[in-house]
Write a structure and sequence with these properties.
The protein contains five helices and 24 strands. The protein is mainly β.
Length: 441
């Protein structure tokens, strides 16, 4: 459901632009877009791969609130849904339609260089964002992990050397409201800090006809603090963040297009209504996400730089949906998940007029515990689908508990050679040692 925010529009800016003289228009230039897709700052026009780049201010004006909604703006990318699952996202039709612990999305999500790609922990709120880059096509030599169809790279806003702040407030229908507050504070000549706080809420708008209650409500609260340090040789940022998310799961509605007359295929639900045997208050998609990221770049001289990216993240996630889309107890799906994640990457970059290259290595450790619950009443299920077998008049509970621990080492290399004017050759390679495998399932 689309919610239009009420915002003030600076009409005077448009009027002023319309009254520019011809000489002023000819002097105007298109702003250069700088991206970091290839692990170094480049003009977007110089990057030899398909990249869609969006500034933070543009994302705010377009009301894009999370990574999945980026698909609404990007040609060749689709998969925007209201839940936290990433299996629906795809680039150029390539996706991983699997939400188990043994598979991860074919499109990788990264924030400030840290991989986010787990359902329940990857879809966090967009606020105080500097840039979002969508890279299409396999990107294993640049990102190293789970980017077989592409990658979405998110860069958060960094502290500046000036004191200041801002407050952005939006309101809309169904009790929609959001607030973003940002404060930037210089500490001394080398240190500066930035605090950003975000809150979003919305009332339920779709009614469960079985209990008369509404679902669809959203309440997200997040905070991020970034500390920056800079001198002649070293540039570094330490970012701490936390988010508490609560929203609706996917809402299904059974219908009977072939007019079979079977009762479980149709309900009396009308527009903005649905029918579920699960209490509306229990239908939920909620999670807690936290993380710490340390990025350090050291100027080694002679056009060499050493980069270090350290990440520590985790989340708790709970999800419950009524998968059969009706009032019968045929199929309810529940997922409970916990994750602890640590990663470390080192890169050495070299930049000259004739060649640009980097070599690097990364290591990560992930502890993931997931429980999948699929519950149904066997008597109801058999009656609905016309199948009979022995049962004991108790609900069937199909449980799957998985624990996975991975500790792989990744090696990366990427070289761009400038052969002649407007002709470059790029070569990249990556390998995992050992391959990422679940240690226990």
């Amino acid at each position: 459901m689309t919610h239009q925010l009420i915002r003030k529009t600076l009409i005077s800016a448009a009027v002023a632009a319309a009254t520019l003289s011809a000489g002023q228009l000819s002097a105007a230039q298109i702003e250069e877009i700088i991206v970091t897709t290839q692990k170094r700052a480049q003009s977007l026009q110089d990057v030899p791969i398909s990249v869609s780049a969006f500034s933070g201010s543009f994302m705010d004006k377009a009301q894009i609130s999370d990574a999945k909604q980026v698909a609404l703006l990007t040609p060749g990318v689709s998969g925007d849904t209201d839940d936290s699952f990433l299996d629906s996202m795809n680039v150029r039709g390539i996706s991983t339609n699997d939400f188990g612990v043994g598979a991860e999305p074919s499109i990788g999500l990264y924030q400030d260089g840290i991989y986010l790609g787990r359902t329940g922990g990857a879809v966090s709120s967009f606020f105080d964002i500097e840039m979002v880059e969508v890279v299409k096509g396999p990107q294993g030599t640049l990102f190293g992990r789970n980017a077989s169809s592409g990658a979405i790279s998110i860069t958060t806003a960094k502290p500046t050397g000036e004191s200041g702040g801002s407050i952005d407030i939006g309101i809309g229908q169904d009790g929609y409201g959001e607030v973003t507050a940002v404060v930037n504070t210089p500490i001394n000549e080398q240190f500066s800090g930035r605090l950003a706080v975000y809150h979003q809420q919305q009332d339920g708008w779709v009614t469960n006809i079985n209990d008369g209650q509404q679902t669809g409500g959203v309440e997200n609260t997040a905070a991020r603090y970034t500390l920056a340090f800079e001198n002649e040789e070293i540039t570094s940022t330490l970012m701490l963040e936390y988010e508490d998310r609560q929203g609706p799961p996917t809402i299904y509605q059974a219908f009977d297009p072939d007019e079979t007359g079977l009762p479980f295929y149709s309900t009396d639900a009308g527009e903005d209504q649905f029918s579920s045997d699960v209490s509306s208050a229990d239908l939920i998609d909620e999670g807690e996400v936290w993380g710490a990221t340390l990025n350090v770049e050291v100027d080694l001289g002679n056009n060499y730089t050493l980069s270090s990216t350290t990440g520590l993240r985790g989340h708790n996630y709970y999800y419950l949906e009524d998968f059969d889309g009706g009032s019968s107890f045929i199929s309810n799906y529940n997922q409970i998940q916990e994750q602890d994640y640590f990663s470390q990457e080192f890169r050495i970059n070299k930049e000259t007029d004739s060649v640009s290259w980097f070599v690097g290595a990364s290591w990560y450790k992930e502890e993931l515990k997931v429980r999948f619950n699929q519950t149904l009443d066997e008597d109801t299920f058999c009656a609905a689908y016309g199948t009979y077998y022995e049962y004991d008049d108790k609900p069937i509970v199909r449980l799957s508990t998985n624990t996975m621990s991975t500790i792989p080492l990744l090696a990366l290399a990427h070289v761009t050679i400038r052969l002649m004017w407007m002709l470059n050759m790029t070569v990249g390679a990556s390998t995992a040692m050992p391959p990422s495998m679940p240690l226990k399932t």
